[in-house]
Amino acid sequence: METDLSFDQMKSLISYATSSGMTPDIEMLNLKGQDMYLPNSNGNRVYYYQIDDTGLQEVISELQSHLDLGTTNLGQNESTDPTNGESSTDGEISTESSEAGYNSEY
Asked: Cα(53)–Cα(31) distance, rounded to whole angstroms?
């Protein structure tokens, strides 16, 4: 995982969240998947975490529920028909979301 927050900034977030004297209700959600190594154009192995589509849908549903978003097209590809300008959703999860993750060349 990579972040641009310093350790002190991370600690201040906890201080801010607990300043009211109440313990924050924090729930952890995990994305299920598997490790995968693929060669790049130089022949070096690159690490990918391939997210399980079913697990991704479960996390999306859980987050939508927590945020009171209802059912949306979150994670779906939307395209516009150039002949009539109408939008449509293909109903499939973008493969970009399934392949997104931590990349590291070995």
From this structure: 9
Quote the strand ranges of the chain, DSSP E.
33-39, 45-51, 76-80, 87-93, 104-105
d(C-alpha 40, C-alpha 53), whole Å: 24
Query: What's the one-letter identity of residue 99?
Result: E
In this prediction, residue 49 carries a pLDDT of: 95
Q: Tell me the whole-structure pTM to 2 decimals.
A: 0.46
Radius of gyration, CA atoms only, the chain:
19
53-90: pLDDT as tens digits? 999 999 999 999 988 887 666 555 554 455 555 544 44
> What letter does residue 83 receive in the DSSP assignment?
T
Using CA atoms, how far apart are residues 48 and 39, in angstroms rounded to an integer?
11
